Amino acid sequence: MSHIRVRVAAVAALLAPLAACSPGAGQGAAAGDAEGGGPHAAEDRPATVTVTPKGNGVRAGGTVKVNATGGRITSVVVADDEGHTLAGQVAADGSAWISKRKAVPGTSYTVTARTTTEAGTKNAVTSVFTTAEADKVNKVDWRPGTKATVGIAQPVSLVFDHPVTDKAAVERQLRLTTSNATEGSWAWLEDWSGRDRVDWRPREYWKPGTKVSLSAELNGTDSGDGGWFVRDYSTGFTIGESQIVKVDLDRRQLTLERDGQTVRTVPVSGGTPGGDKRSWRGTAVLIAKEGTINMNSETVGLGDAYDRMVDNSMRLTWSGMYAHAAQWNSRWFGRANKSSGCIGMSDTNAAWLYARVRPGDPFEVKGKDTKGVVAPGNGFGDWNVPWDAWQAKSALR
């Protein structure tokens, strides 16, 4: 028995070196780590982040861009000193982020970008830049006002303090939405004041009840020679009932139509034929109801023909054409056109009309002897431009 135990021990001793040299599973994995640099062989590095722009005196009007290599962008915050932020979007692969809005003049921005690697290493990078001040600031006057209810011919109109030489850049920042997908277009005009102006009008008169919103995200936009915009503008309004005022100067009568039905026809007297006192024809849009005002002929180039207080004044053009009470001219109502260019009527009829119309209502004027069609910039003569020609006035066509 003892002899057998000796031989078994000897065999075990011979096999032991062979087991030590064989490539077992555990020893093979360890050998691979040592050779290939496993998770503990080298430290995982954070993503490399690049932010543009950077520095001081940066030109405004550009977007902010963040790029990352060796990892993904998880978030970016671009904030000015007052806490206002520039929203943006991360690319699908996480390699880049770009702001949706432009950097505005004279502002300091702090950019904080956060990243992560596949191994889970997170990092935050902060960068600061400051934009140069604006040499000139451009401002906007707009119509109609917020929460107004207006007539079916009312355009959206923006008039600029200074010239706009980069009209396309400005028009790209204008967002007009309607509650019923109304078809329409922007068109650039010269306002009666000589200033640049851009209007949006539908292809046809608005449908009653339409809700309209304008967002003019102009802050940080360079208008060209006119300078920078340093704020946004917005307005929202509603279209009221369908009303059209039809003026027939040949018959010397005015008719108010509502929803296609005649409400009342009244006798009037229009501009005197044969000279500068003639009325305009075409579609004029009621700009404002001005009540009792002083009308002086010298302000419209007609010498000292008149200077009087006039009641129930409804402005139709910037050049001075109104519909109003003109009791002093009563003998001509319905008989002859003897005014200095306005549409005159009795005190009673003017008060009646004044109480029923609203800004934005169209006055469709026709007559043989007039001084021409109301120009687009003379009030809201937009409707006198054919639709194809109107669309062609957009800077983006």
Please provide a brief summary of the model.
The chain is mainly β.
Distance between the termini: 108 Å
Return the average pLDDT rounded to an integer: 90
Helix content: 10-25%
CATH topology of the largest domain: L,D-transpeptidase catalytic domain-like
What is the annotated CATH architecture of the largest domain?
Answer: Beta Barrel
Low-confidence stretches: 1-42
CATH homologous superfamily (4th level) name of the largest domain: L,D-transpeptidase catalytic domain-like
Order of helices and strands: HHEEEEEEEEEEEHEEEEEEEEEEEEEHEH
Shape: elongated
Overview of this protein structure:
With 397 residues, the protein is mainly β. It has three domains: 48-131, Immunoglobulin-like, CATH 2.60.40.3780; 140-240, Immunoglobulin-like; 243-382, L,D-transpeptidase catalytic domain-like (Beta Barrel). It is built from five helices and 25 strands. It has a five-stranded mixed β-sheet with strand order 19-18-17-25-20, with no helix packed on it. It has a four-stranded antiparallel β-sheet with strand order 1-3-6-5, with no helix packed on it. A four-stranded mixed β-sheet has the order 2-8-7-4, with no helix packed on it. β5 (88-90) and β6 (96-99) form a beta hairpin.
